[in-house]
Amino acid sequence: MLKSKTDCAIFCSNSFNCRSFMYNKTTKLCTLYKGFSAYSEPPNSVLGDVYVADACEAYLDFSQKPIVQLLIPTTIFVAYIYQALSYQDALSTCGCLQSTMFTVKTMDRYTFLIAQEGLKYYEWVGLDDIKTEGTFLWADDGKKFTDLALEKLLFDIGQPDNGHNIVDEDCVIKKRLQDITAGKLNDVSCNLTAFFICEKVNC
Known about the structure:
Residues 1-56 form the Apple domain. With 203 residues, the chain is α+β, with helices and mostly antiparallel strands. Helix content is 18%, strand content 29%. The chain contains 4 helices and 11 strands.
């Protein structure tokens, strides 16, 4: 039992490998964590509010990866989540990790995805037309996908097609090796499950 959130924070900073903690103002319970992961149980609200000592280090799945964007070498902070989840659950998981779903809004980012992950898995690419049919939005900033040249390069022939209007296909995946057109993008039901990548932009 500690008297305040500040005392709990000090306890965390003085403890080995503590990157985050939870503090319950009513019970004065202070619970220390090494960090949070997409593969662990989510924090129990009974333990109080979540606080992180370092917003980047507290989330254990993330690492820096090199990427070339507009011919400029740089790095991004990403986490590969090898859990097959629906699109909405994948978005929620990234949100809980204080991040957004990785998007392929440029050819550089698509090339990065293929280079890092290959063609083994179906993967969400952070693009959907859930709000308005035919208007695809990027999951990280909500902006419209308007690059027709990139659409022609990335999407499979005849896609996106919204399931020929027979079933709703509002979320976009990268196809896997077993598919004839592996690596191409396709709109599918958001209820299907696929792997995904989360990205932090302020690390």
